[in-house]
Amino acid sequence: MESDVLRKTILSVVIPMFNETAVIPVLVARLRPVLDALGVDYEVVAVDDGSRDDTVSVLFDHGRDWPQLRVLRLRRNSGHQAALTAGLHRAVGQWVVSLDADLQDPPETIAEMLRVAREDGVDVVYGVRADRSTDTIFKRNTARVYYWLMRRLVGADLPAQAGDFRLLSRDVIEVLRRLPERAPVYRLLVPSLGFPSAEVRYDRAARAAGETKYPLRRMVALAWESTANFSAAPLRLATWLGMSSFLLCLALIVFGMIVHVSGATIPGWTSMFVAVLLLSGVQLVCLGLLGEYVGRIYATVQNRPAFHVGFDSRDEAPGQAADGSRTQSLDSVVGVRG
């Protein structure tokens, strides 16, 4: 039956969600007509990333009238990329689109993405933001710096201003599922695979409702994850710092010998104090950078899953398991809030 579903479903739309109660009605109102107009069998995989509001219950309410809406709930908040991973791994369509729930990336572009993929014979279609005037000046500038830095660290194949709005073929999805990445950054990982690709440009809109899920701290965390996962530049920085401090020490030694030969008196305690502080500081920086990579190796060796699926509405209905036995009720799936 699983193979029949795979052959039948043409398009999957994966939407990570975290506390998106306010935007879901607007999202459904815009997304469903677009997908219905495509004339293909599709599914919408809404991945709830451990929301603390009524996101899941609102999704189930819309799912009663929209059978293609599939709810996938993670047991805890695992982060945007982990929720996206869960959706990509569980999607069954021949083509898979990843879309954020905030509607800053227009769902109407999906039809153009699918057309370009079929006509051009490519496996990846990136949604590229041609106009970001609705974003704040700070966000536009930080995004520009991020993509500039990533293109120099990762390579020129990285599309500029392309976030997580993209269309992937089943071949790409299967490759992503086999990769051992524990914390993938898909905007860098997908271009690194080298699949034939194309771009569809669009104007980025303002958030339809709710609050942004990417404040400054998460943007910084994303930049660090991107750098550490795809580049050894921090390690090279540590190497250059170590070499610079070594050369400085040699210069201080030569200086001390010249002063000693000339008979001049220098305050030895001060020079020793400065040298110890300098070397200790450089060593701490290097150990910190090395520790980041050792920590990643440790996490990989542990092989802990990045997410845990608590419920998938495609597999069973709330309160009834596939074999007919009782399972958790709808209230327990949605969660009880006081």
Describe the protein's architecture and organization.
By secondary structure, the protein is α/β, with parallel strands linked by helices. The protein contains 12 helices and 8 strands. The chain has helices at residues 2-8, 24-37, 55-63, 80-90, 109-120, 137-153, 170-178, 186-192, 216-230, 233-262, 268-302, 330-334; strands at 11-17, 42-48, 69-74, 95-98, 124-131, 162-169, 197-203, 309-312. Strands 7-5-6-4-1-2-3-8 form an 8-stranded mixed beta sheet, with helices on both faces. α10 (233-262) packs antiparallel against α11. The longest helix is centred in the last third of the chain and has 35 residues, at 268-302. The protein is elongated and about 90 Å long. The two termini are 40 Å apart.
Q: What features would you highlight for this structure?
A:
51% helix; alpha/beta; single chain
What ranges have pLDDT less than 50 throughout 5 or more consecutive residues?
A: 321-327
Summarize the biggest pleated sheet.
8 strands, mixed
Total DSSP helices:
12
Q: Which structural class best describes the helix and strand composition? A: alpha/beta
What's the quick description here?
The chain has 338 residues and is an alpha/beta fold.
SSE arrangement:
Elements: H1 2-8, E1 11-17, H2 24-37, E2 42-48, H3 55-63, E3 69-74, H4 80-90, E4 95-98, H5 109-120, E5 124-131, H6 137-153, E6 162-169, H7 170-178, H8 186-192, E7 197-203, H9 216-230, H10 233-262, H11 268-302, E8 309-312, H12 330-334
Parallel strand pairs: 1-2, 1-4, 2-3, 5-7
Antiparallel strand pairs: 3-8, 4-6, 5-6
Helix pairs in contact: 10-11
